[in-house]
Amino acid sequence: KFSQRHKNPQPRPQRTDYKKQEHKITTELNKLTLDNFMNIIDSLTIREENFLDINYLKTLATCLVRQASLQPLFSSLYSLSATSISSVLDNTEYAASRQAFCQTLIAESKKEVEGSINSTSKFASDSAVGSASFFGFLANREFVSIDECFNLVKKSLENVTASNIEICRQLLIPAGEKIENKYPEEFKKIVQTLEVATKDKNIPGVVRY
Q1: What pLDDT, in 10s, does the model give residues 134-144?
Q2: Which of 30, 88, 140, 171 is 20 to 30 Å from the Cα of 11, by its Cα?
């Protein structure tokens, strides 16, 4: 016999408007490739009826940061998405909307990297790699300042662990050249710190080499 619960199944909880919006954005971002890039960006911007709504743009920024941390291999593409969305909003009439999107994305992406730096994990997780790489590419594309990226690099090396070395590396791969150009002497010190780490046998070989 079926239980009473099966006789009278409870309806599935309905998604809130926020959850529907979040789900829609995430679905679109998951489809993102270089081939369909502009089509997806248009779908998230000019073809989206809520595009200029500040809450929508904050959700879009948060989703973009989350996807970048979940999919490290696509961090460059997600950073390009951020700059493209910002460009669509580059109009004095949309100043408040653009500010909401950019400030949310910068704050959330920075928070992700700082959280990874403060983690006690022995090795950098995929999300730590993704968030650091994403922030580095944002700096490379001048969406965030080189200063902010360099501050995270220095912060990652305040405690030289296997995880933080990898986070530092992911920040430097896209942004290292620009950091070196702006802060050549300080950049040398960063390189020296990393060179010392390669000789530290307490750091796992997979990271040192």
Answers
A1: 999 999 999 99
A2: 30
